[in-house]
Amino acid sequence: MLPVSALRTLTCHPTIPLFLSNLKNRSPCFSKTNLCFLKTHTSMPPSASSKIVAEYAKSDRSSCKTCSKKIAAKGLRLGSVSRDPRGHDLTRWHHCDCFSFNSGTVTSTDAINGFDLLQRCDQEALKKLMSGHKRSLDEKTDGDKEEIEPEERSLKKSKTSTPGEEMELDIPFSVSDVKDMYKDATLFPKWKAFQTIIYLERDDGLHDSGKIAAFDFDGCLAKTSVRRVGPDAWSLMYPSIPEKLQRLYNDGYKLVIFTNESNIERWKNKRQSAVDSKIGRLNNFIKQVKVPIQVFIACGLGNSVGKAEDPFRKPKPGMWRIMEKHFNSGISIDMDQSFYVGEAAGRTDDHSDADSKFAQAIGLKFFVPEEYFDAQSLPA
C-alpha cells in the first residue's frame, strides 16, 4: 500500500482527485478518514500563492480589512489576492495607508497588478509607501547603524529643512483622500483636490528636482483683475517670462506655482465658475510658455472669527510641505539653489506681505517679479 507521506506530496498535483478515487477503489484499507486527513493537511496556505492588486473601487460596497471602514467609490484600494482551499481567488481589500507590505514578497511595483493603469500621483504615492516600509525594516534590522549615525542624519536634515516653528507643520496625506472634485465643483482633467487645495497632478514632461523655482501666479506671472472672470481674462505680466522659465527648466529646475484663490471657497453659489476661471487661466498660461509646471492652488480662507487659519493658504507653508514630502519623488530640496518669486511683499502698494512671509517661513530666497524678470541674469 502507498504510504501516506507519499500521498501528501501527490496531492499538490492537479490530477489528484482522479488518483484518490482510483486508489480508494483499489485499496480497501483506504478509508474516508484517510481522505479527510489528506485534504486537511495538504492544502497550500493562501500566502503561498498570494499577489497584490491595485485598482480604483468601482463602488462604495467594499470595506477595508484592516480598519473595517468603507472604501469610497473611485478611491484607490490595494488587494491581497490568495487562493482559497476550493481553488477560488479571494481578494481582501484595504485602504492604501492601511495596507501592510510586511510579508516582504513585494519588492517593487512590478509585482503589483494594475500599477501601470493608475494615475501618476497614485503611482508615486504607492512607491513612497513601499520605500517607507523598506526604510522602517532597515532601521529595525540595523540597530548598530542607528546608534552611531544620529548626528550625521541630523546634519543632513538641517540642510533641507526650515528653521522656526513652521517646521512642526505636518499634514498627513493619503491617496484615499484625493478627489476628482472640489466640493461640488468638477475639476479639469489632470487636476485633483486634497482638503482645501487643488493641484495639477502631473504636467507632461515635468521632472522632479532638488532645485525648485517657485512662483506666485496673479500679479507675478499673469496680469489679472478681480473684475474679470474667465480662462482668457489674463495676459503675461512680463514679456521675458517664457524665455526665463524655459531656461530654468533646461537648467534642471522644477517649476512650481503656489497661488491663493479664496474665491473658490467663498463663491458657494458660483464655485464652478471660480474653478473654471482659475484652472483655465493656469492651463492657458502653461500652454503659452511651453514649459511643464507643477501647480498648487490654496482655496481656503484666511483669518476668520472662530475658525483656524487654513494651513495651505499663504503665508502658511502647507502647499510647500505637501509638494516637498509627497510630490517630489523623495528628492531632498537644495535650499541654497531654490527660490520663490511673488508680488505680495508688504510694500506700500502691495495688498499684503503673504509672499515674502511664505518664503521666510520656508527658508527660501525671495524676489519680487520686477526684480527677477527684469534682471539680466538668473539668481545664483
TrEMBL record:
UniProt subcellular location: Nucleus
Region (Disordered): 132-166
Keyword Coiled coil: no
UniProt KW Oxidoreductase keyword: no
Gene Ontology molecular function terms on file: ATP-dependent polydeoxyribonucleotide 5'-hydroxyl-kinase activity; double-stranded DNA binding; polynucleotide 3'-phosphatase activity; zinc ion binding
Keywords: Metal-binding, Nucleus, Zinc, Zinc-finger
Biological-process GO terms, alphabetical: DNA repair
Domain of life: Eukaryota
Pfam family, one: zf-PARP
One Gene Ontology cellular component: nucleus
InterPro entries linked to this entry: HAD-like_sf, HAD-SF_hydro_IIIA, HAD_sf, PNK3P, Polynucleotide_phosphatase, Znf_PARP, Znf_PARP_sf
Protein name: Zf-PARP domain-containing protein/PNK3P domain-containing protein
Organism placement in taxonomy: Eukaryota, Viridiplantae, Streptophyta, Embryophyta, Tracheophyta
